[in-house]
Inverse folding.
């Protein structure tokens, strides 16, 4: 017997997703969540590394401040041929900093020696990257607590 309300007759749809597994376009799994958190942590480490490099060169004449942005990281993932290529099985795999694309920071005033690194800008950049890393780390720790809880059967 069909329900009185025609909206309850079929699968419940929210936007482009529905409750039926066959209709799900973007499946969210534990693996995809862990991978996304790992990418967020790697991106934060890359941003911290670039800012630390800028700070190390704060007194280098002519040095121009660099930055690693989300858009640059996304372009690297979408165009993998642009970065280093592993041509032999004996080559070591790169870590999160291997092939990090950076670009010169625009709009910063340069000093007389041509250097445009600003201490407050770099410290703020490191703080923001550390906050992003910490947020991903907190989410990851919560996920592992849930797994540990399940393994211990709620004890």
């Amino acid at each position: 017997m069909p329900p009185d309300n025609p909206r309850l007759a079929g699968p419940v749809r929210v936007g482009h997703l529905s409750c039926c597994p066959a209709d799900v376009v973007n499946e969210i799994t534990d693996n995809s969540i862990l991978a996304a958190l790992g990418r967020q942590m790697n991106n934060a480490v890359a941003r911290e590394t670039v800012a630390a490099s800028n700070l190390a060169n704060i007194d280098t004449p002519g040095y121009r401040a660099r930055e690693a942005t989300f858009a640059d990281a996304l372009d690297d993932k979408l165009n993998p041929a642009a970065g280093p290529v592993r041509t032999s099985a004996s080559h070591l795999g790169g870590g999160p900093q291997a092939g990090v694309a950076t670009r010169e920071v625009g709009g910063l005033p340069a000093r007389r020696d041509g250097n445009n690194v600003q201490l407050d800008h770099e410290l703020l950049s490191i703080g923001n990257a550390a906050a992003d890393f910490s947020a991903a780390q907190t989410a990851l720790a919560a996920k592992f607590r849930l797994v540990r809880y399940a393994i211990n059967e709620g004890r």
Summary: Residues 24 and 97 are 35 Å apart (CA to CA). The chain is about 45% helix and 5% strand. The beta strands are 13-14, 17-18, 66-67, 103-104.
